[in-house]
Amino acid sequence: MLIAQNNVTVSGTVRDSAGNALPGVTVSVKGTKTGNSTDDQGKFRIVVPNANTTLVFSAVGFLNQEIRVAGDNSINIVLLNNARDLNEVIVTGFGAKKDLRKVGYSITEIKGDEVTRANNVNVVSALQGKVAGVYINQGAGGPSSSAKIRIRGNASLSNNNQPLVVLDGILIQPGTTGADSWGDNRDFGNIIKDLNPDDYESITVLKGSAASALYGSQALNGVLLITTKKGHARKGLGVSFSHTESFDMAYKLPDFQNTYGGGIDPTFKKDAAGNDIVDPLTAGYYSPVPNGGYSFGPKFDGHMVKDIDGRMVPWVANKPLDFFQTGKYINTNVAVEGGNDISTYRFSYSNLYNSSVMPNNDLKRNSFTLRATHKIGNVITLDASVNFTNSKIKNPILQGGNNSPLFAFTYDMPRNADINYYQHNFIDTTLGGVKGYASGSRLTGDPYNLAHTMWNYYENNVTRNENNLLADLDITVRLARGLNFLARTNVNNYNDYTEEKDRGQGPAFSNGYYSLTQSNYRNIRVQGVLSYTKDLAKDYSLNISAGGETFRNLGGVQTQVSSNGGLNAPDLFVISNSVNSPSVTVRNDFLPYATKRLDALYAYGDLTWRNMLTLNFSVRNDWSSALTYKDGHGGYSYTYPSVGLAWIFTELPSFKNSNSILSFGKLRASLGWTGSDADPYTTNSTGFYGQNGTFNNAGNGNQQLYTFNGSTLGNLHLKNQLAREYEFGADIRFFDNRLGIDVAYYKKNTFNQVLSLGTPVESGVSSRIINAGNIQNQGIEILLTATPIKSKNFIWNATVNFTRNRNKVIELAPGVKSYTMELAFGADVSAQAIAGKDYGEVVTGYGYAIYNGKNSAGMGKKVLGLAPYGTTGGYYTYMRSQDYDGTTKNLGNIMENYLASTTQEFRYKDFNLSFQIDAKIGGLMASATHQYGSETGNLKNSLAGRNAASGGITYTDNSGASHDDGIIPDGVLNDGIIVNGTDLGGMSYKDAVKQGYLKPIPAYAYYENLSQWSSGIREYSIFENSWVALREVSVGYNIPSNILKKASFTGLRVAITGRNLLYLYKTAKDGINPEGFFNNNSAGFAEYGGLPYIRSLGFTVKASF
Amino acid sequence: MLLTICLSMAACKKSSFVETNINPNTLYAVDPADQFLAASSGSQDDFEYYYDVYRAMNLWLQYATNGSGNSPGFTNPTANFNYRYGKVFYGRVGSYLSDIPALVSKMAPNDQAKRVYQLNIAQIFKAYYAFYVSDINGSIPYKQAFQARYGGIITPTYDPQQALFDTLDLQIKTAVQNLEASPAATQTLYGAKDPFFGSANDEVGQWIKTGNALRLKIAMRLMKRDPTKLAAIAAEVLADAHQMADNSDSWVLYVGPSYTNPTGNWNPGGFAAAKPVVDFMMANGDPRLRIFYRPNKNGVYLGSYTSPDDVATHQALYTTTDTLSQLQHRLFTPAYDEGDGNGSGDGVGFFPFVTYAEYCFIRAELGARSITSDDAATWYTAGVTASIQFYDDRAQAAKISNYTPVTQTEIDNYLATAAVQFNPAKAIDQIASQAYLDFFRQPSEAWAWYKRTGFPNTTSVLAWSPLTASGTILKIPRRAPITVLPATDANYANQQAAFAEMGADPGWGTGPNDGFGRVWWDQQ
Q: Which of B11, B68, B70 has the CB atom closest to A623's CB atom?
C-alpha cells in the first residue's frame, strides 16, 4: 500500500543568532510558489504537501536556510547574518537606506548585536577587529577611558583623527582624552561612553572620501553612522529584556622577578635583638642612597624579618596582582515596543554598572531612549528620537605618572614592599593624615611610599556626573510620487560636574582639597533635503536629492572653583571651607565650549542603468565661521565633490546564463573630497593678546598680566584642509555566494593641513599656523567571507579582514622638514612627522650613543661614559647620543604594518559558537613602566649577572672585598676617560677590565644607570609592539520554542562571552601590556604605568515576551 | 525652501559667521606698560632654577652640593641647561620687550612722543638680558631676532659676541642719554607696572643709574679681549653724574611669596651647604652664614664635601638625614613651609640683576687694576658692607624663621678679620672672593667672575676644594653646551654659520656641546 500523500502543517519561530524574533521572513516550499512569511513575533505556520518537503527561509540581510521537514511539526530556525548579501540594504549618506549594489565605494555595516556582545561600555572598543581598514585601541584608564579609532590611517597631523559619529542624524565629534607624557591624569573619556549600544540597529563605517563626502568639513577622518532601533507594527506589546554580567580579571603583569628582595647587599644586617632587618638605606623609597628601592637584596626564603617600618614580616615577594579586584560589568536593558500602521514606538532603558579591576573605580550609566514614528495621512511621517544618558564616573585610573598603579608598584619599589598591608593601613591612626606625614618620618612611617599611593586611590576621590541629551525630529513630507522633503532638527545638550575631594594628608587631616568643575555645551543641526526618485525610460533609474543644513556649536563654558591652601574643617567638602579665597578658572575658548557655525548646501544622487551600472555623485559646499577673520575677510566657502561608479558585471548577458562558479561580481571606482576647516577662533585669536596669569608683587598683590596670548603666529590666509581620495574595489562571490572576496585599494592625500608648526624661537614666536602639506594614506583592504559548511543543523561562517595602510608624510611646508606630534618620557622621546618619511617616526636624543671618536677600533660601538647628572656609584654607563655628540636618533616608526582579523561562527541546531582573533603587526611603543621598572631590579630582565650563578663576574673592590655581581657592559669608553695616565677612548670595557684599568660594574649600578631618569637609555624601553589576540569567544544557546511555550516567552537566549582572552603572540618587552597606552591621541605610542592585562568573561540572558 | 532662504541670506551675511568666530578672551592691543610688566614677571623661570641654578651652577661654584653628595659626573653640563636662552629670552623677555616699540609705533604721533622714556627703559632691560644670554652662549641672534610678529624674518642670523657687546653698549649708552634728556612731551612712565623702580621717587633716575652700572658690568667682560675699550667705557660711564650710591639703587626684582612655588621646581630643598663656603664664613664670622644656610638638626652649621672622592670617603654624612646644613629655603622661596608648625611663609623674594654691592666690587677691581682712579680699598669695603646689609634686608623681608638681624658690630668684626680686611697684595683675590659671596643669589655672575679673574680657586682667600672623581681632577664648565639643531630645522644653516664663526677660535672647544669650551670674551 502506498503511503498517503497527506498535507502536513508545520509551524515554528525564526530568530537571528542573537535570539531576536525575525518578522517578515519568507518561508517557502522549495521548488514551488507556496509560501508565507513570519509574523511580528517571528512565528510562521505553513501547510506543506508531505513530510519530506524542504522549506526555504529567506530574508534580507540573512543567509538563506533550507530545512527538510522530515516529519517535524515544529521547526525553529536561526538565520545567520549574511554580511555580504547581494540585495543588502545598508544605511549610508545622511542615514538613508541604500541598495548596496548601487554603491561605488567600500562600506561596512556592523549589526548592533555584534557590538553589544563585547560587553564594553565603549561602543568604539567593541568594534575592535571587526572592520577592515579600522584600527582601534582600547583605553587603559578604566571603564570610562576613551578608545582610539583610526580609519584608513591618519589623515592629518592633529592629535585627533577620529571619525565623526552620526547618531540618527545628530553629529558628534569625539575628542581625545587621557594623560600626557608628563604626569598623572585621569581619563574620564570622551562622549562615546555616553552612547548606549543596546539601542543600536547597526553601525555603518564610511571609510573613504567618496562615502563620506556628504559630511564635507566634518568627514576628514571618516564617519560612523549609527542607526537606532525602531518599533514595529505588531499585535500587542513587545517586551524584550537582556541582562549581562561580565567579570574583568587582571591576569598578568610585567615580568616581575620574585627571587630577590629589597636592598643591595645579598645578606641581611641585624638589629640589636638579632632580627634580620630590611636595609632602610637601600630598600626604602626615600632612601638616601641614590634612589633607594633596590631589589638586589637577600633571596626570598619566607623567614621573618623586620621591615623598615618595624613590623615583623615574612621575607617574600609581594603580589601586585592581588591589589587588583575583579571588575564587574552588569548591564540590564528593558525595551518595550509596539505600534500599528500609523504609529510605532520603542522605549528602552539600560542600567549599566561597570567596576574596574582598579579598586574604587567605576562607571554607572543610565540610558533612556524613546523612538517614535507617526504617519499623518499618506503625506507626512514623523520620526522622533530622544536619548538621555547619565553617566557617573568615579576615579578613573591615574595614568602617565607616579601614581599610575603599575608604575607605583615598579618604580623604586623593592619586591618585598608590602602592598597588601599598606592598601589597608595607609592612614596615620594616631595623628591623622597619611602615614609618614604627620610623624615627620617618611622613611619609617611610609618606607615604600605606598601609604601615599594608596591615599591617592582611596582618599582622593574624583567623581564626574555627565548628562547627555540627544534629540532628533525628522519630518518627511511626501510632496508627489517619488518626491519627498525631509526636515530634520536635532540637538545635543551636554553638561557635567566633577568633584574632587582630597581628605587631607596632613596631621589631623589638614591640607584637604576640594574642587568643583562644571561644564556645559550645546550643538544644534537643522537640515532640509528634497529627494526625487524616478525610473526613467526603460533602462534608467534616478535618485537625486538636494538640500542644506546649518550646524552650530552654540558654545558653553567650563568653570572650576577650587579650595586654596587647604580646608579649614577636615572632611567638609564645600568651597566656603577653603582656607584662602578659592581659585576660579573659566574656560570657553576651545571646543566644545567655543562657538562655531557650519552651513552647507548639497546635492547628491545616483543614476542606474539596467540594474548594472550605477553612477553616484555628490557635491557639498560649506561655509565655516572658523575660516573668517575679524575684519571680514577669509575664504570661508569651499566645495567637496565626489563621484563613484559601480558596475555589476555579472549582470551582463554572457554571465547571466552561464554555469560559472562566479555568482556575483561588482567593480567599484570612486573619487571624493572631504576636509576640515580650523579650530574655532584660530583666525581671530592666534598672535594677539590676552590675559596671561598674574604677577605676585612684593606687596603680595597680584597684578594681572596682559601680553601675547601665546607664542604662536597667526595666519591671515587660512584655507580649508582638503583630502582627495580615490578608491578602486571589487566585490566578487563564488559558489552561490558562499565564498566572497571584497578588495579595496585607496589612496588619500590631505592637503593644506592647518598646523601649529615649530618655528625658530629666536624669531620671537615658537610656532606659527601654517596651511600646507601633503599627508598620504595608501592601502589595501581585503575582506574574505565564506560559508564552508551549510546544512540543516550545522553552519560555519568565516570572515577574514586584512589591512595594509601606508601613512606617509609627502611634504609639510616649504622649508619645513619635521613636526613633533606626541611625546614620551617627558620630552625625551617624540613621534614626529618628517617630510618624506612615514607618519610617526620615533626620534630621541636619549638613545645609545655610537662611538665616532679618535680610536678607530671603537667605531660603531655603544659608548660608555658618565652621565650629566652623574651615575649611580659613579660607574660608567651607556651614554645618550645627545650627551655624547649632540645627535638624535631615529628608532623607527609607530605605525603598524598590517592589521588582520578573523571571525569564525558556527551554529549547530540551537547552539552557536563564534570567536574572533585580531592582529596588529609592527609599530614601535615606548614604555615608562619598562624603563623605570627595570631601574631597581624589579623585573626579570635584571636577574642576569647578580651573582656567579647568573653570570656575574667576580672582582675585588677597592676595599679588598670580593663580589660576584660584576657586569661588563657591551661598549667602548668615551674619549677623555683617563685611568693611570692612559686615555681609554675607544677601548672596549672588556679590554679595559682585562688590562686592569677598570673593574666590572656591580649589577645594581649597571641596571640602574641603564634605565634611571637621570642617565637611562630610553631606547632600551622602546620596542616593536606586534600582537595577535584572541579577542572574543562567544557561545550561545536559544531555548527551543517548545520549551518556551510553557513559560510564555517568545524567545530566550543565553550566551557566554569571553573578551580579550589572551595574546597568542606579542613582542612587547618583558611582559609590558601591549595595549596600555595612556591616551587616545593619534600619534600616541607611549605607556606610563598602564594596567595589568585584563580579560573578561560573562554571560547574557535575553528574553522577549 | 525655508532653509534655502536662510542659507542664501546667511551666505550674504558673512558678518554673522565672523561674529561666531570671535574669541571673548582675545585682546587686540595692550599698553606698553603691560608688556613691560609681563617681561619683568617672566624674567625668572622655575626650570632655570631647577636645572641651571640648583643642579648646575650652584654645584660647580661650590655654593651647595646635592643632598646625597656630588656624583662623579656633576660638573658635566647637560642638555637641560641654559633655560635663559630659548624659554626666557626668546620666549618671553625679549619678545615682550620687542613689542613695546611696535605698540608705540601704532600710536598717534602726539602719544608716541610721551613714550620716549618707556622705550628707552625697555631698551636697557632688553640689552641686559641679551648680554646675560650671550654671556654663556657666545653668538646669538639679536639684530634680526623677534621680527616674526611684524612680518619679518623667521630665520635670524647670529650676531657674533664681539659685535653684540658693541651693539648693546651703544644701545644702553643711547638709552641713558635719552633718559637724561628732557623731551617736550610729558612722559608716561611705567609706574606700578615697573616692579623694579616703579615705586621709587625717581623711576627714570634709577634706570639711568642702572644703565650706567650695566655698561660697566658688560665692559668688564672685555678685560682680556679689549682692555682699551673697557677703560674708555669705564671713563665715559664714571664721568656721568648718575651713579649707584646705596642698596636702594640696586636693580633687583622683588616678588611676593607665591611668585615661587616652594614645592615645585623652585624647591631649594634637598641640597647641602658646601663645605668651603661654610668653613670660610664660620672661620671669619661672616653674618651672611645664617642667611645663606640653615643649621642642621643639631643647630650647627656643617658643610658638605664638594669633591665626589670626598663624598665617597664620608658616606656617613650623607646617609643620615639632616646631618648637613641646607640652603636657606626661604631666601629662595619665601613661602617655604619650614615644618616648624607655622606653615607657609609670606615674605618677599628677590632676584638681583645688578646690585650696588656688585657695582662697588666692579669699581674696586677697576681701581685695583688702575683702569680707573677709584680707591680699591674704599670700594671693596663699601661692597662687603653693602652686600651684608643687602642680604640682611632680604633675610628679614623673606621672613626666615628665627632670624636674628645683623648688627653693625658683626659687620665691623668681619671687616677686621685678616681674610677680609683689604690687603693690596691680594686685592683681586679678595675683591673676587667677596664678590663671589655676594653673588650667592647670582651664581651665573659668580661663574663669569671666576672665568675672568680665576678666583675663587683652591688657594684663594676663600679656598675651594679641589674636585676629583676617582683621582681625576674635574674641570668646571665655561659655557653652555649648545644643542645642535636638527638638519630639518629652519634655522639650521644660520646656527651652523655661527658655529663656524665661533669655532674659528680654538678656545671654543671640541664642538657646540662642549661646555668646557669658551665664548669670545672668555679668552685663555
A: B11
- CB-based contact (8 Å) between A475 and chain B? no
Residue A322: CB atoms within 10 Å: 11
Contact B189, B196 (CB under 8 A): no
Q: Do B27 and A688 touch (CB under 8 A)?
A: yes
**B-contacting residues of A 975-1014, CB under 8 Å?**
978-979
Burial of B477 (0-12, 13-18, 19+ CB in 10 A): buried
The amino acid at residue A209 is S
User: Backbone phi, then psi, for B286, in 5-degree steps?
Assistant: -65, 120
Chain B residues with CB inside 8 Å of A599's CB?
Answer: 7, 10-11
Instruction: Read off the pLDDT of residues A678-709 as tens digits, 9 standing for 90 and up.
Output: 999 999 999 999 999 999 999 999 999 999 99
3-state class percentages of chain A: helix first, strand second, coil last, to nearest 5: 10, 50, 40
Q: Which residue has the cell 503511503?
A: A3
Give me the residues of A, 844-903, that contact B with CB < 8 A.
845, 866-871, 874, 882-883, 885-888
**Which has more pLDDT, B4 or B13?**
B13
Q: Closest Cα to residue A210, out of A492, A594, A614? A: A614
* Cell, residue A885: 655628540
Q: For residue B443, give Cα distances in angstroms to B75, B261, B352.
A: 15, 20, 11
Question: Residues A783-810: pLDDT tens digits?
Answer: 999 999 988 889 999 999 999 999 999 9
> Between residues A19 and B110, which one has the greater pLDDT?
B110
Q: Do A697 and B486 touch (CB under 8 A)?
A: no
Q: pLDDT of A103-153, one tens digit each?
A: 888 888 888 888 888 888 888 888 888 888 899 888 888 888 888 899 999
Residue A1066, beta-bridge partner list: A1027
Alpha carbon of B109: minimum distance to chain A alpha carbons (Å): 23
- What pLDDT was estimated at residue B78? 75
Q: Grid coordinates standing for B201? A: 621717587
pLDDT recorded at residue A4: 45
| pLDDT 10s digits, B393-417 | 999 999 999 999 999 999 999 999 9
Q: Answer for the pair B248, B399: CB distance below 8 angstroms, yes or no.
A: no
Q: Do A763 and B156 touch (CB under 8 A)?
A: yes
Using the Cβ of A779 and the Cβ atoms of chain B, whether some distance falls under 8 Å is answered with no
A773, A677, A674: which is closest to A720 by C-alpha? A677
Does pLDDT of A909 surpass 70? yes
End-to-end CA distance of chain B: 84
Residue B147 to residue A882, Cβ atoms within 8 A: no
Contact criterion met (CB < 8 Å) for A685 and B25? yes
Q: What is the pLDDT of residue A979?
A: 86
Q: What is the ipTM of this complex?
A: 0.96
Q: Provide, for chain B, the percentages of residues in helix, strand and coil under a 3-state DSSP scheme, each rounded to the nearest 5.
A: 50, 5, 40
Distance from C-alpha of A39 to C-alpha of A236, rounded to nearest angstrom: 12
Whole-angstrom Cα distance, residue B304 to residue B291? 17
DSSP-assigned letter for residue A22: -
Q: Which of chain B's residues have a Cβ under 8 Å away from the Cβ of A217?
A: none
Closest CA to A872 of A767, A751, A999, A1008: A1008
The whole-model pTM stands at: 0.86
Instruction: Show the cell assigned to A921.
Output: 603587526
Question: A846 Cβ partners below 8 Å, 6+ apart?
Answer: A825, A828, A829, A880, A881, A882, A1016, A1017, A1018, A1019
Q: Which domains occur in chain B, in start order?
A: 43-90+244-454 (1.20.120.840), 94-238+478-524 (1.25.40.390)
User: A1092 Cβ partners below 8 Å, 6+ apart?
Assistant: A250, A251, A252, A253, A320, A321, A324, A357, A406, A1073
